[in-house]
Write a structure and sequence with these properties.
Layout (H helix, E strand, L loop, with lengths): L1 H20 L1 H7 L3 H17 L10 H7 L3 H22 L2 H6 L2 H24 L10 H11 L19 H15 L1
């Protein structure tokens, strides 16, 4: 019991060091939800700005072809990630949900769904990701046919450990096999 008390006092003593050293880092790490929510319209605009050269906004193929450029694709991924994170924060805020127009929230959600779908198709198109779901059944069949287990040996010790227990026997036979080589 005294050891637990000593450990608790050590931890408590370290908190004063944390106050001095880590408080500033902690404050920088925590972000104000309202500040993030205010960034949402700009992040949404930044994401659409990637596709400003596309004339027909309904042509999904045009979006994919535009993202053939690796640098532009990277910018798209970065901006999509920022928009997605900010929208998630906004949607978790009751103030945002109460104050924002329902049409605006719906627009953000629809756009996020569209861009996430676009990201998935672009990653497949430019071989950045492989979808193994179509191969899953065949891979499982190969594993079932060609990968098996050997005989199961019990290696746990009984309560009275003697030289004839399975664990000792395996260790002994392994040691004997090593000496013979």
């Amino acid at each position: 019991m005294l050891q637990n008390l000593d450990e608790a006092l050590d931890i408590y003593g370290q908190l004063s060091e944390f106050d001095e050293v880590g408080l500033e880092d902690l404050c920088q790490a925590l972000t104000d939800v309202d500040t993030e929510v205010k960034k949402l319209p700009q992040r949404h605009s930044d994401l659409w700005e990637v596709f400003k050269t596309i004339r027909n906004k309904q042509d999904e193929e045009a979006y994919e072809l535009l993202l053939a450029d690796e640098e532009l694709r990277g910018k798209f991924y970065e901006r999509l990630s920022a928009f997605s994170r900010t929208l998630a924060i906004a949607l978790s805020s009751t103030a945002f949900l109460q104050n924002a127009h329902e049409q605006k929230i719906t627009k953000y959600k629809v756009d996020l769904r569209f861009f996430m779908k676009l990201r998935t198709s672009v990653r497949k198109r430019y071989a950045e990701a492989v979808d193994f779901r179509e191969y899953e059944a065949r891979i499982q069949k190969l594993i079932d046919q060609h990968v098996g287990t050997g005989e199961v040996e019990k290696i746990t010790r009984s309560s009275s450990a003697t030289a004839s227990t399975p664990a000792t026997a395996i260790v002994t036979s392994t040691s004997a096999a090593r000496r013979s080589h």
